[in-house]
Amino acid sequence: MIPRVLEKRLVQLADKxxxxxxxxxxxxxxxxxxxxxxxxxAYTSLEAPDVQAYxxxxxxxxxxxxxEGAVLDEIQRxxxxxxxxxxxxxxxxxxxxxxxxxxxxxxxxxxxxxxLAGRTALLNLLPLGLEEIRRFPDKPxxxxxxxxxGSYPAVYDRALNPGDWYPSYVATYLERDIRMLLNVGxxxxxxxxxxxxxxxVGQLVNLSALGADAGVTHVTxxxxxxxxxxxxxxxxxxxxxxxxxxxLVKTPKLHFLDSGLVCYLLGIRSPAQLREHPLxxxxxxxxxxxxxxxxxxxxxxQPGLCFYRDSKGVxxxxxxxxxxxxxxxxxxxxxxxxxDAFDSLKAFQTALxxxxxxxxxxxxxxxxxxxxxxxxxxxxxSRINEIDWWSKEEQA
Length: 396
Known about the structure:
Elements: H1 6-14, E1 19-23, H2 30-37, E2 42-45, H3 49-57, H4 59-64, E3 70-73, H5 81-91, E4 98-102, H6 105-115, E5 120-124, H7 130-133, H8 143-149, H9 153-157, H10 162-181, H11 187-199, H12 207-214, H13 218-230, E6 234-237, E7 253-256, H14 259-265, H15 271-275, H16 280-297, E8 305-309, E9 315-322, E10 325-332, H17 343-353, E11 358-365, E12 371-372, E13 377-380, H18 392-395
Helix pairs in contact: 8-14, 11-12, 11-14, 12-13
């Protein structure tokens, strides 16, 4: 397995906290990362039924098997174990004593917050970023192949066909986790809802329309979307909220964390099919958003992302706020960039001038040409990881 960007931050925090908790979607590489970062630590997985039974029936005895601490995998399977870890680390607050991993963000964070507040550092491991994908020998060299293959490690590490892997992933992991997090009585309606969400990627969230199309209520649609977020499948990008003296859209946009999963849910079975698909631009936009998100989260930073849209329809796909600097990003999946691609960026720059905020503009496109324009840097998709999507203060 290739080195992960998050490993550096994981080791740093383990040197300061007695417990570090790593969450993220299933199959994002959490176990591999933690075992590689702490090769001398004992390891056990709570996924196995016999280990779960032991940890539940005799938690003190279970933890006594690891006097020097351990990597405890899938801790959300036995969340009550956290209450027994607390007194152990309070009595002997050794650095990096326990490394915990878990996939069900929703339930896990609630349990961690109750039992280990102030005792654990929290990190998220998302699927691979572009710089990590390039460390594999079998890496895609063109944009459409990259979007279609997605960013889950198994696809690259085991050289799997995405058309074979994603159906199994959805059936084996997503639907099982959904049943664990929420009592979904009609799995067919949920599958329809999941595909409808993929069809609305990059659009404003409309829960009423989503629910109606899936045949469920607005309340159910809200609950199901929350579960997709808890399982690190989808995420809501908040709107830019500063008071600019004009009406701003207050509804978030819907994005997915993995473009390959979006392609599978949309029925796109090859890169060539993606080329002609009407949602190619939306798939590219969600990939760019997730790449910048990963660049920050894998360095232990808060997402910090939003989007801008006013009542006149002026929209900037992504805005990254870094103090008095805002990085504004437009996405264009085509290989050429027309002059009107800069119009929204110019309008956004004008709107923020009164707030004494500097705006650095980018147009990230599907071609290979890089240009330094007055309004923005024209950045090819292949060089997205060459930009520092953080401030110097955040990395200090």
